[in-house]
Every structure is written in structure tokens, then in C-alpha cells.
Amino acid sequence: xxxxxxxxxxxxxxxxxxxxxxxxxxxxxxxxxxxxxxxxxxxxxxxxxxxxxxxxxxxxxxxxxxxxxxxxxxxxxxxxxxxxxxxxxxxxxxxxxxxxxxxxxxxxxxxxxxxxxxxxxxxxxxxxxxxxxxxxxxxxxxxxxxxxxxxxxxxxxxxxxxxxxxxxxxxxxxxxxxxxxxxxxxxxxxxxxxxxxxxxxxxxxxxxxxxxxxxxxxxxxxxxxxxxxxxxxxxxxxxxxxxxxxxxxxxxxxxxxxxxxxxxxxxxxxxxxxxxxxxxxxxxxxxxxxxxxxxxxxxxxxxxxxxxxxxxxxxxxxxxxxxxxxxxxxxxxxxxxxxxxxxxxxxxxxxxxxxxxxxxxxxxxxxxxxxxxxxxxxxxxxxxxxxxxxxxxxxxxxxxxxxxxxxxxxxxxxxxxxxxxxxxxxxxxxxxxxxxxxxxxxxxxxxxxxxxxxxxxxxxxxxxxxxxxxxxxxxxxxxxxxxxxxxxxxxxxxxxxxxxxxxxxxxxxxxxxxxxxxxxxxxxxxxxxxxxxxxxxxxxxxxxxxxxxxxxxxxxxxxxxxxxxxxxxxxxxxxxxxxxxxxxxxxxxxxxxxxxxxxxxxxxxxxxxxxxxxxxxxxxxxxxxxxxxxxxxxxxxxxxxxxxxxxxxxxxxxxxxxxxxxxxxxxxxxxxxxxxxxxxxxxxxxxxxxxxxxxxxxxxxxxxxxxxxxxxxxxxxxxxxxxxxxxxxxxxxxxxxxxxxxxxxxxxxxxxxxxxxxxxxxxxxxxxxxxxxxxxxxxxxxxxxxxxxxxxxxxxxxxxxxxxxxxxxxxxxxxxxxxxxxxxx
Length: 825
What we know:
Blueprint: H1 3-12, H2 16-25, H3 37-44, H4 47-55, H5 59-71, H6 82-86, H7 94-106, E1 110-112, E2 126-128, H8 132-135, H9 147-153, H10 157-170, H11 181-192, H12 195-202, H13 209-214, E3 221-223, H14 241-248, E4 253-254, E5 259-261, H15 264-270, E6 290-292, H16 293-320, E7 323-324, H17 333-343, H18 347-359, E8 363-366, E9 371-374, H19 377-380, H20 384-397, H21 436-454, E10 466-468, H22 472-482, H23 487-503, E11 507-508, E12 511-512, H24 514-521, H25 524-537, E13 546-548, E14 552-554, H26 561-570, E15 572-574, E16 581-583, H27 586-594, H28 599-609, H29 616-627, E17 633-635, E18 640-642, H30 646-653, E19 664-667, E20 670-672, H31 677-686, E21 692-693, H32 709-712, H33 725-738, H34 750-768, E22 772-777, E23 783-794, E24 797-802, E25 807-812, E26 816-821
Parallel strand pairs: 17-21
Antiparallel strand pairs: 1-2, 3-5, 4-5, 6-10, 7-9, 8-9, 11-12, 13-14, 14-16, 15-16, 17-18, 18-20, 19-20, 22-23, 22-26, 23-24, 24-25
């Protein structure tokens, strides 16, 4: 019977509490809502849904499911009980296996099976859903495929199997001889199913053969040079080494010129008949070194201060000169070198800072100029603890992995300024990872889990003044147990995520900080308390500067946002570090005057915030620049020049060097220009004039809504995968409305089940090589029933053999209304 039909009956018989538990563990089943149990069963058996469910299983759950898959047959309906599974799982108890089977059945990954005639009373037989065949992978439990499957899929192996069987028969190793590829494959398979036979055969193997076979302990495929070499038992003197010997005896099957596969029966024999050799219900506890709590705190605070400083300085650098992008996308190496030199740091750290600023919205891409420009005035005005929270929230939700920057581009795409191998550029599309937020959240959860285990009261000898140091190896080891099917995706990103977490103060000296624990827990109150604690530990910002005679000002620490912003208007920052240097110049003073200041207000501001007297050269510079400032005024809306000196405007109109500005006189005291205001101002200053540049229009003047820090700050919700309670209750209520008194009387929803059910039957018919009755709808809407033999399915099409016409055809699956098996073998 179909998996979908069997599962529909089981789901309909579940209580509301059991349905809620299912939807909590598999939220994709109700996104969007399903109308009835038939549709729910069809979705639960869909490949994508089963794939997501497998990603949430831990190692023992996956081991039990893989063992069940290997010893059962969904096509024939032959299931297995927990007692039968126990025979193939080394170290597994019947109680533990039965408990895991119950969990898998609650997750709708397995369903009940009809007990065989020889079944003992009280035994519970189950089968995996049929779509597991397409999801579980080519090597479940690390075991290869059967000889018969390899002979069917590999055209080169069938004739080779016949030769191997003949040579084995001649050598007296086998008792019969096969003439067809499938018979030869069955012979090789039967020979290797007995562990004693394989062991006896290996006793005559060359040296290092056992060492070579041990490399196939966890995976059935391996790389071997010249794997399709010609070897023969008829000429044993030509067999050089263990690889030749194994190929000649059929214990390794060549896949292509460079790879071989260990057949399933051989792998099982080497494992002593056990599918699972090491079955553990609990994850092994790693041995973690420790660091002092004081060192952890100091490292975290130092990292936070450094990251905030680098972000601020990167924004200032991009304010001076925007960050240009490449035609292929992203920021090139040359542009990044300017940022690296300006920050005085390593490339990887500078790349992380730029990526973080983009994720936080502190820089934006100007589509007109294809450059990244700062948009961070709001962030710069916030207290540092709120700046930190803004950055952390953006990092958690960022669908990019900055640690991929500088690594080779998958598939060789992209560009490299150095002319070498293409690498991932900063802010390029190649660094996009839609699963990055989920992986970060999971890494933080594992950090919290390992920290809690190491500091639990059960440890007994834990020093409260120390904290466990957790590295990438410990995280990957735990992820291989908790979510083994995701461990490969984790392996590439985990080291970079830990480095980024350390840069944000979520880790310090390799240990999870209280800030990191608050963020990992996803509790808003704990995070808010952690932010308050951060404001207490960070050094208080200073509100004074030191003016020097060389036209510079030194900030003896981090300035308040207001003082920093005002000082940035009238100076040009120089150097790096908390004690930054700011230089005064004619251009910087003119910039402050353009913003609306005058000499008196500038001198008053400096006198108020300087711990030293204003040097006389600086006072002269401000007063002299202000005295020559403002004789001409330039407006932004249409590049307007206005002046009370009509003669001066006449001279401008007649000046040949200004003809490219498109000057036009509107009134005796007003001239317009087609050039941009800043271009116009630069041209007039080149002539020795000192025009006033009116301030640019505000956000409100440009009809843009004003955004507060709360509206612009990225919001974060931990991607726990748990659906909303209201959605679960609504789905349960909808299903309850379609539930009849007897689950057996619940009519299936043909529209909901038809696609998945038809695919399931077609795949089953292909594996069993049986005919089916197909109801097909043509382009005019007319339907017809045909007797066909399905051959293969790919790309939404099914290739069939028509025995009546003795031809092959290709049909679109969406035109197949119904499929029914006609016979079974």
C-alpha cells in the first residue's frame, strides 16, 4: 500500500496534542496550511519536507532510520521491528531503539507496516516513507550500493563482473559460473554476504590491504588513480599492490577513471554484519581548556571597542571617498587596499568591517554611481552600547558570510584584480548564504550548550573564576552528533563565525561571554541587561580635546557622539586608535562654514571643549577663512549663484573658464548653472573666490520620512524553526473540522494527493519494472487511459515504453491524472 495512504490513516488517528507536536517539529507541514489529512500526508512525504526533517535528526536517530531503510523494502511492504534492527546496531538496546522508532513515527518519517506471517505477537513493524529513497543519499550509513545495482547503473561493470566471476570460478574460489552481467553480480553479492568468506579471501591478500580497506570504514567511495586499469586473476604476477588485488577479486568496483566503490555486502562483511558499529545515545563530552573570567571580559571589551572604532573610521574613509564597485560585482582588491591602509589592519578584518557596515545599513549602494556611500549619521550619534547592539543585530540577521571573502569562487566565476585565481570579493554575490542566520544561531546555541555542560554543578571541580574555551573543532564535533546532515555546511562557516563573534564581544579569549550567552538564549530581557552591563564596563566617552600648535587636535579617548560629529565637520581625521588626531585646514574650516557656522561659533565651540588654550595660528586660520567666506552664495535646488555685487556676477558671465558650467542670468543679482552645486563651488574656488555653499536639503525637505534609531535598527528573532502557536492551533482546528468519526472512513483529497501519489507509484513501478495504468490528459483537455512501462523520471517528465506501439515516449508529469500498478514482482 502507498506510504501516503498509510500515513494519512495514521495522521487522522492522532490526537490534537500529537498533531501539535508534529507541527512544532516540522513547521513546514503547515506553511501554508493544508485542508485535510490527505494533503498533510502528501506534504509529509514530499522530498523537500523529508529533507528538512532529516536535517533536524541527531546521530542515533539518523542511524536507526538508515538501518531501517537498508533492511526494509518499501516497494514490497516488508517492514522491520525493533528487535530486527537491534541485530544490525552494535551497542543498541531494544528499549533505546524502540524509543527512537517512536520518535521517528511521531515525526511522520516512518509508518506502520503489515507484519509478516512469521511475525511474533507484540512486535511492531514499521517502514520508512517511500520518498526517503530520494533523500537519504547514495551511501546511507556510509555503505555502498549492491552489486546488482552497480551492474545496472554502470555499463562498464556488467561485462567486468562476468569476467571476474569466470576467473573466480577457474581459481576455485566460487562454485558456479555466470554468463550474464546480472547473474555475475548476484554471484559476487552472494559470495560477499558471508563475513567468513570475505575474511578467508582477505587472508591471501597482499600487505596493506586491510589498511586500505579501513579507509572505507565511514564512506564507500574513494579516490584511486587509474581505477579502470585492466587487472586479471589469470595473470596474478601482474597484480601490483592491494588495489589491483581488490579490483581483480571484485571487492572494489571502479566508478570512473579516478574513483572506486566498496559494494554494500563487502562493507557489511568488513563491519562484522553490523550496519552501525558505534551507537551512542549521548554526545561525547569534549575536553575543553579554560581561561580566566577576567581575561575573557577584558578580551571581549577590547574587541568591542576595536570593532566600533574600525566601523567609525571606515565610515569616515568612505565619506571622503566612496567605495567603488567592480563591473562583475563587489568591491575590488585595490579599493579594499585603500580601506586596509586607512584602518591600519589586516584585509580579513577590514573586509568584515565593510560587510558589517553594509549589513547594518550604515553604507548603501548608490545605483547612479555604483559606489557604496555612508548613511550612518544616526548610528554615529548613538551611545556605544546601542551602536554595538545595532551591529550585533545586523550580524545575526545578515544573509552573507564575510568569512568567504578572499576564498576561491565556486566554479571559477568572478574576477581577481591580481590576475590570479578568481576569489570572492567584498560585498559580492558569491558571499551570499541564505542559511547564514540559521547557522549563526545554531553555533551560538552549541556554544551555550557546551558552556553549560562544562560549568554544570555535576562537574564538581569547576572553578567559578574560569570559563571553558570552545574552538571550531569542538563545535563541529558536537554538530556532527546533533545534526550530522548539516555538519558539512557548518564546517566551512564555523571558524569564520567564531572569529566574528569574538570581534563583536560575544566571545572573549575563546570563551562565551555573558553578552554572547544573552544573545544566544534569545531572551530580550537578558540581552537588555547585558547591554546595560556593557555600558558600565566600557570606558566613559570624553568631552574634551587637546588643541596643538601644529593645527591638530588630539582626542584623549573616545569622544561623545555629539562632540565627534561636530569636530568631524571642521577637521579631517588622521591616524587610528582611541587617541585620534584631527587636523584643521582651510578646506575643513570652509566645510564648517558651509554647514552654517561662523568664526565666533567655531571659536566658542573649541574654547568650550578644549583642555588647552586655542593656539594663535588656529585662531588666525579660522578668522581669515571666515572673512573671505560668503561673498557669493550657491543654492542646491538649481545651482543658483546669488550676490549683491552685480559687477562681480557680470564678470563671471564673461569669464571664459566658466563657460562649461552653463551659466544663465535670471536677475541682476542671480545666476543659475547646469552644474552640480559642489562642482560649481570648486570651479569658483579655483579662480580664487570663496563662495558659500548652502547646506543640502534635509531628509524632510526631500519628502523622506524621518527614521528614528528604533525604526532603522535591524530587528532580530532567533530562527528557532518553531511555528507560531496561533498558526498551529488554526491548523489543528482546520484538520479537526475534516476529521470523521472513523479514520478509515476519511475520504482522501484527490487533488491534494494526486501529484505526490502519482510520483510515488511511478518510482515504485520503475524500481519493480512493472506496467502501470496511466490516465493522461492531452492539450485539449481530453483524457485517455494507457498501459505503459515507466523507465525514468527527470525534470518533471517521465519516460515510458509503450508496448502496444513498441516505442518510447516522454510525458509531462503534470498531465498524468492517475497512476495504478497493474502487477508486482
